[in-house]
Amino acid sequence: METFKKLKQFYWPYKKYFIASLFFVLIVTGITVVYPMVLQLTIDEVIMAENYDLIPVLSVGFILLMAIKGITNFLQQYLGDLFGIKSVYLLRDSLYKKLQHLSFTYYDNARTGDTMSRLTMDVEGFKFFLAAGLKELVRVVFLIGTSLIVMFYYSIPLALLTMAVMPFLIVVVRKFDQKVHPAFRSIRRSLGNLNTRIQENVSGMNTVKSLSKEDFEIDRFTIDNKEYREVNIKTSHIWAKYFPLMELIGNIAMVSLLIFGGWLVIEGDLQLGELVAFFSLVNYIIGPLMHLGFIVNQFSQAKASGERLLDILEAEEKVTDFEKTVTVDKLKGDVKFKDVTLRYYEDDDEALKNIDFEVPAGKTIGLIGATGSGKTSITQLMARFYQPSEGEVYLDGRLTTDYSLAFIRQQIGFVFQEAFLFSTTIRDNIAFGNPHASMDEVIEAAKRAQAHDFIMEMPKGYDTMLGERGMGLSGGQRQRISIARALLINPSILVLDDATSAVDMETEHRIQRALKEVMDDRTTFIIAHRISSLKHADEILVLDDGEIVERGTHEELLVNGGPYQRIYDIQYKDRDAITDIS
Ligand SMILES: Nc1ncnc2c1ncn2[C@@H]1O[C@H](COP(=O)(O)OP(=O)(O)OP(=O)(O)O)[C@@H](O)[C@H]1O
């Protein structure tokens, strides 16, 4: 119940639909119980008493009753669906919003396929219970209650006999629930795994094919597919075991009633019509009691789904806005790291150790070092993708936490090594961070990023549609679109994280020349492995294992015999070697 209580905020605002739907359910159920009573009247008061004049009256009454039942049935169904649909709309919306605000730490561990299955299958599972299950539960309880009252009215001993069966049925239904709930959780989890496998396979198809790992992938999928099959079979087994048992108990009750009721009729203690009516009524008890298993099943599924949805809704947003944030129009671009240490997880090794540096606005800073030395981590701390474990990061002399997250991220333009392009037009991809930009501004940014020419060569120019991973574009072209995207937000701080690694030296040179102009009035961080990419920086920080081991200009670092000089020697010796060969 805890799960449903926690999710109340999503369905309670629409309670009016639920209450109205319940009202009509009660009318439908009431009419259902009247049917056997009409049957009893027809047999005992019309046929047995030979009062055939009453037939037209009874017929008209019956038709009227059916018409009312039809209309109320429509209303209860429609309003119930409305309740479910509106509630999950709100739920889906909140889940998506939450996903937008969850911090990077969450996504470091989240699996896309599993998240997708939560947002689709689990939301649907929850909706089904809201729209149908909950109402069905009320209908069943009401139907059993009213049927029992009418039964007691007809014959107390027969009603007691019926009631004697109920505890057995209830025990079986409860046992069924205990078994079926974990089974449904496994189904959901297994489906999440399956979706993850498919999603990762499609996303990583290049790697799979280039390493000829198709068979390996098929085997891995088969394992997950088998697991999904097994949990479904297990669940089906539970169903198959419990439902016949419930039916058996129901049938025993019917046979006992037939024997005992028949004897009462023979003895003259019960009228024939009453026995016939009783049989219909018994069906209204046994049937719903067995159906209760189905409802419990839906309830279990909804509970399992609800728990998975709460996992997302209650996930901690590790990086959030602090209570008081300052409002500034624009950052100048001063950056200062004071004794910053970063551990991605509490007991993890330090990814950054005692990082101390200062960059005045407008300067260009180069970050170089082996892979995993902490270059990207430095820039991510600036934009508060993560929180430093110790030390402080300042922008324009204020702590990064003094600003709102949205503001900081508007002010820092990132170009990542892996440029993600959305499946929309090139124009929209460039304007993603600034959708109100004019076409001229988009073209200007593209020109600076050396992207305009190749875009114009495409059949539809800026209106060319791109695939999810920028299908049809080379790595270098994707990077240039990503640079244009970053430039279009007119950031005070620009971070080029290996942003030109996929373009040839000549294009890199052209991009750098074009960027020089835009870099003049903004602080720029260039992360690169190639010395040629950052040698013009005002200061270069050389990182090793999370520490700054050297700093200075290109010229200074070339002569002090440190790691930078070694990198230089390797890269330029290579060049000389190549020149020698040719
Ligand atoms: N999201 C993360 N969760 C846990 N550890 C991380 C995460 N990102 C980076 N690390 C670890 O932090 C260290 C520094 O990583 P970082 O990405 O900053 O290095 P880098 O110098 O930018 O490397 P590269 O040149 O390969 O991009 C590495 O040991 C890495 O494994």
From TrEMBL:
Residue spans crossing the bilayer: 21-43, 55-75, 126-145, 151-173, 248-266, 272-296
InterPro entries, per the entry: AAA+_ATPase (IPR003593), ABC1_TM_dom (IPR011527), ABC1_TM_sf (IPR036640), ABC_transporter-like_ATP-bd (IPR003439), ABC_transporter-like_CS (IPR017871), P-loop_NTPase (IPR027417), Type_1_exporter (IPR039421)
The keyword Cell wall biogenesis/degradation is annotated on this UniProt entry: no
Membrane topology of the entry: Multi-pass membrane protein
Residues annotated as domain ABC transporter: 335-570
Domain ABC transmembrane type-1: 19-301
Record has Repeat as a keyword: no
Subcellular location: Cell membrane
Keywords linked to the UniProt accession: ATP-binding, Membrane, Nucleotide-binding, Transmembrane, Transmembrane helix
One matching Pfam family: ABC_tran
Superkingdom to which the source organism belongs: Bacteria
Signal sequence region: none
Gene3D superfamilies membership: ABC transporter type 1, transmembrane domain, P-loop containing nucleotide triphosphate hydrolases
SUPFAM superfamilies assigned: ABC transporter transmembrane region (SSF90123), P-loop containing nucleoside triphosphate hydrolases (SSF52540)
Gene Ontology molecular functions: ATP binding
CDD domains reported in the protein's UniProt record: ABC_6TM_YknU_like
PANTHER family in the cross-refs: ATP-BINDING CASSETTE SUB-FAMILY B MEMBER 10, MITOCHONDRIAL, ATP-DEPENDENT PERMEASE MDL1, MITOCHONDRIAL
Name by which UniProt lists this protein: ABC transporter ATP-binding protein
Organism: Amphibacillus indicireducens
Organism taxonomic ancestry: Bacteria, Bacillati, Bacillota, Bacilli, Bacillales
